[in-house]
Predict the structure.
Amino acid sequence: MQHTLSMKLTSGLGEMGEMDEKIRLSHGDGGVETQRLIKNVFYQHFNDPLSKSMPDSFVFEARQNQLAYTTDSFVVKPIFFRGGDIGKLAICGTINDLATAGATPLFLSASFIIEEGFSIEKLHLIVKSMSDICRQTGAKIATGDTKVVERGSADGLFINTSGIGIVSEYYKPSQVEPGDEIIVTGGIGEHGASILLDRYDLGIETDLESDCAPMCFLINGLGENLKHVKLMKDPTRGGIATALNEIAAEQKLDLELDERTIPVKSEVQAIGDMLGIDPLYLACEGRMLIVVEKGCGEKVLHHIKALDCCREARIIGQFTSGHHGMIYMKTLIGGRRIIPILEGQMLPRIC
Amino acid sequence: MQHTLSMKLTSGLGEMGEMDEKIRLSHGDGGVETQRLIKNVFYQHFNDPLSKSMPDSFVFEARQNQLAYTTDSFVVKPIFFRGGDIGKLAICGTINDLATAGATPLFLSASFIIEEGFSIEKLHLIVKSMSDICRQTGAKIATGDTKVVERGSADGLFINTSGIGIVSEYYKPSQVEPGDEIIVTGGIGEHGASILLDRYDLGIETDLESDCAPMCFLINGLGENLKHVKLMKDPTRGGIATALNEIAAEQKLDLELDERTIPVKSEVQAIGDMLGIDPLYLACEGRMLIVVEKGCGEKVLHHIKALDCCREARIIGQFTSGHHGMIYMKTLIGGRRIIPILEGQMLPRIC
């Protein structure tokens, strides 16, 4: 794999003629060198017919469907991290935002802001990560853009992705009620902990990786079971604590978590302890919070645990009759504590 | 208008409580302060029901239509320039990319990458510019994102917009043929010249402004006349010379321009002369190149000149029988010169 890629890189650079291995301002001016960069880097990896003749706008036939539409910009630091890179994150992030609406991806856009001097070899690796996820999921890059800014005017590379997805006919989100159950699809905080490990020298040896992954497989896997799902949210910035607080506030309902059931890897807990950050507040990039109608939690859980992306899924709590939008957690030692939304204490550039 | 805005600003800042007037890293962490920023800046201006409860994905019912989809990131420097700012440019740029596909905007996304320390008052002005264009055009911001990076990791503010538009039933783009005519909808290079004036101290006093404007009015205005249009392109980075070279290369046809007919304001010419840049290569952000079937140029021209956005429209040339994808120009003094695509000589951060 590495070998094939490095051969491709060499041949790509060769074709570029005068293009050296660093991004120059002229790669972003819309002229000959921009076209070469697009041809030799982007088209080399986004190699399906859609993207070979990328016009200013991509036109497609809409059917009588519900479509979901989303956007996210990615500024993660570092750009390469254990378990992924900014490219994989950008595609997964947008696919996961579509998944929260019960949608699987149809078309994506990819827009790059690149700092002068950025390595073209690294850009190849990042674009290849993006195309790998597209291939796995069937998402297609339909439109894109490239801008270059002077050295010192950006931090390497920022990527924006937007996406259009088709909403499953089975998904009809509805009002949450007391007794509705909350599932998380896997171990929490692994993305946030991985970024911290790679950003700061914590002296921890571990094979922990970011959970960064596309959650459209969950939507396909849920199938008809989506009719038991009342809402979904991907717990990215601020982790499950922030995402659940947002849900509780919107729904004006309290909820209670059971600490014993929340899946946290020991390495994530250790990193959290070391830095004084509760794993509940650490970002996930390949997990989903699923609110399931009362009494259907076990059924849905059993069904999704057969999916690769949900093997560690658990029911972690349920909504209660309080109307304050508060989150309580039964702790391991039998206590009960409030899980607040944090103010100004979270981590920058986690995604 | 200014007064209303400044009152709104004061009240906005007041509501923000502890929020001071500069962007902090915590405004981008996805927690309480991000929510406050969204509520007090974005929702204050994007004030239609769509954006009041911006979920991770926006869901809409598609009809049996052709939809156009596009994206662009904006890194223009300076952020405020004569005739506009990065916000107006971002909305117009995406609307204009949709227009090239014969589409009028339905939904837009808006994603912000903000440098720590950026003025919240300036952000208000920029978001207001965006919402002004949305109001004028009927475009709706359906989804958005905000990221903040540390001081020195970006240059103030970058904006990405993507857009979904409905393609006019009258627009069926087709193969260009010799004799087909080329219309430009107004004076060229005014955006590029304005940016240069504001970026460098050229010591020129002029009321020249960027032509930055939304071209969806052209699509509506063309109406049934769109059936005579074979293709459209907005001449942004690299100006009409670059856009026409791309068309000529794609269509494998030569074309001939008539310098006498190309609308260039004297100030644009003067700025170009001073800096050694041909106005043909200076960006427009509110103009369209329209290729019209042979013999229909005058009819279409007459029709669009009634539109505010096209009063200075002209037929500037036509395709010829050569198949080299070359552009020739009959010059003012009766000569004939090639207009090449430039390599590595264009201006960075014009949009």
Q: What stands out?
A: Chain A has a mean pLDDT of 91. Residues 181-338 of chain A form a domain with the Phosphoribosyl-aminoimidazole Synthetase; Chain A, domain 2 fold (CATH 3.90.650.10). The two ends of chain A are 27 Å apart (CA to CA).
